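Run log, item B.
One chain of 234 residues. Sequence copied directly from the ordering sheet:
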Amino acid sequence: MSEWKQKRFWTDVSVEDDDGGYAVALDGRRIKTPAKAALTLPSRPMAEAVAEEWAAQEDEIDPRTMPFTRSANAAIDKVRSQHAEVADMLAAYGDSDLLCYRADSPQGLVERQAEAWDPALDWAEQALGARLEPRTGVIHAPQTPEVLERLRVQVHALDEFRLAAFHDLVSLSGSLVLGFAAAQGWRDAEALWQLSRLDERWQEELWGVDDEAAAVEALKRAAFLHAKKFYDFA
């Protein structure tokens, strides 16, 4: 038996002012989230991006082609009601940040990590007031509690839309520092994504590219780049 799919039922898609934000309407009826909350968006660019996704649907609605709609739904239905829990989960990445766990060999990798990742830690010290210290090896060594608290406060300050985007920036890269660097535009999103894949690139140089792993990475990269756009639109 084939799975039922919702069909396109509208002709016109429009963006409307909505209680200090923006709504998207299908033939004049405003879209709601899956949990039936009003899909009130914080900026016109975000609303226009959502509207473009709905306008692009053809016979059947395909949520996989609607990343802005999915992210907005997540911000309203999930992050809004669990803001503190999500913020704490992401802030915890600071104590095990990807950029802080360094190889002890081979020397080429040690040098490449230092050259690529030290500037990001330097940036975090200046921009975020938080100096995370690198460690050699994979055994966890806690960061200074005061530094982690400074980062935690800044994560909690994000509204639900930015926090939804920040969730993907951090979880996909494995780095709280890179999440903040993307959000604040330290470098462009593609460059930051490549920083998060430094170890994988080293392995590819040694052993070649694994097609299956590359396909998975391509999906994660697209999600990371989308999260940066969603953050900027918020």
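Observations after the first pass:
- Residues 87 and 163 are 7 Å apart (CA to CA).
- Strands lie at 13-18, 21-26, 29-30, 101-102, 135-136.
Flagged for discussion on Thursday.
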